[in-house]
């Protein structure tokens, strides 16, 4: 039963936004199994949780540009949570993932040794937990934004897709969980992007390194690399990739 008349707690709000990030907009429905499970865990109805997730859509410029406005009247704290995530993706990704794990019904997803986290005692095990939770959030958010397809070739087998960082993980801690610093790429194009064989220009077209332009290339090389040069990246439904991040990649990773 939904907790009617009770304000949404901070943990409930960050869980709702976490799920909003990880769910394609067209699948935010009361029949979605993830929404049902999460709603039951936090003591809300699937309809109530789905409406709260749709409330966040009104702040999303990508959805507004597509004339998808979400629900116009939400709680006063919805925009606060939106801004908190966008100002600190890594921190809020971690906090919301742990909030999910802390509610009844989710404990089994994390072992008992993973759940406690004391930021004042930064052991290697605790750092490892944080990295795994942040990486999981980033992967699910990026892949769902691209509807679980490669942004270059449209391959849509999730087991062959990676959530690629545009600015590398090691280069900027603040961008590690930022979905606007991510691309959904198949394993071939993920490796090519990571190794600087391909890049993306300011108009979202693919640039190919001269090192990949060889004579008598085999078919996979031709189709997977030579023939994608100049094609436009398939843009996501949410969290459009950041042009500043692409510029960093061109300057620091791409091989001319």
Helices and strands in order:
Elements: H1 10-22, H2 33-42, H3 46-57, H4 61-65, H5 78-87, H6 89-102, H7 124-145, E1 161-165, E2 182-186, H8 187-194, E3 198-200, E4 206-208, H9 219-224, H10 243-252
Antiparallel strand pairs: 1-2, 3-4
Can you put this structure into words, describing what you see?
This protein has 256 residues and is mainly alpha-helical. The chain folds into 2 domains: 131 residues, no CATH class; 106 residues, no CATH class. Helices cover 43% and strands 6% of the residues. The protein contains 10 helices and 4 strands, in the order H-H-H-H-H-H-H-E-E-H-E-E-H-H. The chain has a two-stranded antiparallel sheet with strand order 1-2. A hairpin with a 5-residue loop joins strand 3 and strand 4. The longest helix has 22 residues.
Short recap of the structure:
This protein is mainly alpha-helical. Helix content is 43%, strand content 6%. Helix 1 crosses helix 3, helix 2 (33-42) packs across helix 3 (46-57) and helix 5 crosses helix 6 (89-102).
């Amino acid at each position: 039963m939904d907790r009617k008349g009770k304000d949404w707690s901070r943990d409930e709000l960050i869980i709702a936004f976490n799920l909003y990030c990880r769910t394609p907009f067209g699948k935010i429905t009361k029949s979605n199994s993830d929404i049902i499970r999460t709603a039951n865990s936090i003591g809300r109805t699937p309809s109530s949780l789905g409406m709260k997730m749709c409330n966040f859509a009104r702040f999303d410029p990508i959805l507004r540009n597509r004339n998808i406005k979400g629900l116009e009247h939400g709680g006063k704290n919805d925009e606060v949570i939106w801004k908190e995530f966008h100002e600190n993706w890594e921190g809020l990704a971690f906090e919301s993932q742990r909030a999910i794990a802390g509610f009844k019904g989710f404990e089994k997803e994390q072992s008992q040794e993973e759940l406690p986290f004391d930021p004042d005692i930064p052991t290697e095990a605790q750092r490892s937990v944080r990295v795994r939770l942040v990486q999981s959030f980033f992967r699910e958010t990026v892949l769902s934004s691209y509807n679980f397809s490669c942004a270059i070739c449209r391959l849509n087998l999730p087991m062959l897709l990676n959530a690629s960082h545009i600015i590398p993980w090691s280069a900027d801690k603040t961008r590690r969980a930022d979905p606007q610093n991510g691309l959904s790429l198949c394993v071939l194009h993920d490796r090519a992007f990571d190794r600087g064989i391909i890049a993306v220009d300011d108009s979202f077209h693919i640039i190919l390194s001269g090192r990949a332009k060889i004579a008598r290339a085999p078919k996979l090389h031709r189709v997977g690399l030579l023939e994608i040069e100049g094609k436009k990246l398939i843009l996501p439904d949410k969290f459009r990739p950041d042009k500043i991040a692409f510029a960093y990649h061109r300057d620091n990773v791409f091989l001319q």
